[in-house]
Amino acid sequence: MAEDLTIITSTDKEEQYRSLLPQIEALLDGEPDLVANLANICAALKEQFKWLWVGFYLVKKEELVLGPFQGPVACTRIAKGKGVCGSAWQLAKTLIVPDVDAFPGHIACSSASRSEIVLPLFHNNEVIGVLDVDSENLAQFDEIDAKYLESVLKLINFNE
Description:
- The chain is 33% helix and 26% strand.
- It has one domain (13-154): Beta-Lactamase (2-Layer Sandwich), CATH 3.30.450.40.
- A six-stranded antiparallel beta sheet has the order 3-2-1-6-5-4, with helices on both faces.
- The chain contains four helices and six strands; from the N terminus they run ααβββαβββα.
- A hairpin with a 2-residue loop joins strand 1 (53-60) and strand 2 (63-70).
- It is globular and about 40 Å long.
- With 160 residues, it is an alpha+beta fold.
- It starts with 12 loop residues before the first helix and ends in a 6-residue tail after the last helix.
- The relative contact order is 0.17.
- Helix 1 (13-28) runs antiparallel to helix 2 and helix 1 (13-28) packs parallel to helix 4.
């Protein structure tokens, strides 16, 4: 198991992801605990990209409940269909929001957040949570982020 990350300072976002993906895979390799793996994914992404907030919300009794994260304190519970996270869960698709203030019903867990990407976490074709990433910059996220963050989520092993 790798316990150190090699952070690259390239301005090429794809190069950063290509460097980070195998490192995340090594962090997860052989570790069966879901919470530990989600925590390490958050830490690795936050270290590489210096985003404001990176975390998971997990579906529990028909609401999203805060899971492992890196960043300032966050909303603890989010209803299905509410805010960007609840909407990504309800729609079962990745949402890229260039300006959170323009998103109808945005939940402002942090006033510093300006843009956001939320990706559903699937297990057995069901959304069991979401990966939420917030930035202090407008229009921080794009299809490159969606592509590579979806690849990160596919690395998660669900031991049954």
